[in-house]
Design goal:
Number of strands of chain A: 6
Number of helices of chain A: 2
CATH topology of chain B: 60s Ribosomal Protein L30, Chain: A
Radius of gyration of chain A: 14 Å
Strand order of the largest sheet of chain B: 1-2-3-6-4-5
Structural class of chain A: alpha+beta
Number of domains of chain B: 1
CATH architecture of chain B: 2-Layer Sandwich
Number of helices of chain B: 2
Low-confidence stretches of chain B: none
Distance between the termini of chain A: 12 Å
Order of helices and strands of chain A: EEEHEHEE
Order of helices and strands of chain B: EEEHEHEE
Strand order of the largest sheet of chain A: 1-2-3-6-4-5
Mean pLDDT of chain A: 94
Strand content of chain A: 25-35%
Helix content of chain A: 10-25%
Number of strands of chain B: 6
Largest sheet of chain A: 6 strands, mixed
Mean pLDDT of chain B: 95
Oligomer: heterodimer
Amino acid sequence: MTIQKTGRIDKWGPKIFLGSAAGDIASVCLTAPDKSGSFAEQTQGIFGVIDELLAQMGTDRTALIYAQVWLAGIEHWPDFVPLWNDWVGTDHAPGLSVVEMAASRRDSRLEIRVWADRPAAA
Amino acid sequence: MSTFTRSHPDTMDGAKRSLVCKTGAWTHFIGLQPRNLDGDIKEQAADVVAQLEALLEEAGLAQEDLFTVTIWLKDMRYFSALNAVWNGWVDETNPPARTCVSGELYRPDLLVEVVAVAYKTEAAA
C-alpha cells in the first residue's frame, strides 16, 4: 500500500508534509499558515488549508471522522465554537476533542489534526 | 466502497459533534467526557469507562478490539487515581494501547476526556 502525501513544508521549521492518506483514510495536521492573524483568522486559515489538502487527497470536510484541536489558550474555546459550527455545516458533525497545549511559537494560537474518510480511494 | 457513519450527536458549549464515527473496520469514539462533572477523578474516569463500554457493546465491539486509547487529563496529579480506575477496567492479560497527556480541558471542572479507536473487520465479526 502506498502513502500519498501533500502540503510540503520546508521554508522554516521542520521538514514535513501536512497531509497524508493511505487506503480509505486521509489526515491533515497544521498550525495557521499566517500566524500574524487573530485567533479567528488563524482558525479560518487552518480550515482553508485542510479543505485544500483533503481535496488533493480525494475527499472533503463532509467526510471528516474527527478533529483534534489543541488551543494555546483554552480561553479561546468560546471563539472556536461558531467558527467550527460554520465550517462543519448543518448535517451530523464529525467528532471533536479540544485540549489546551503549549504551542511551538508564542504567536501560534492553535493546531488542528483531522482524520477523514476517503470514499474515492476505497 | 467503505461505509462511513456518524452517530450519537452531542454538543459541547454549542459546538456540534458526533461521539461515534465509523469507517470500514475502524470505529472512533471521540471526546468522551463524564456525564456529571461534580465527581472526583475516579468518579469521572469510571463514568467515561462505562460510556465507552456501552458504546463498544452497541457497536458490536469489545475492549479487545481497541486499537488505541488517548486520555487527556486536566492535571497529572490525577495520574495515579486514573490508573487505579484503568487497571480495574482493563483485561490484565490484554490491556489496550494507551496514550495519556495532560492539558486543560474545555471546562475547568472537566478532569478527563477520552478518544478511543477500535478496529474489527467484518469478516471477523
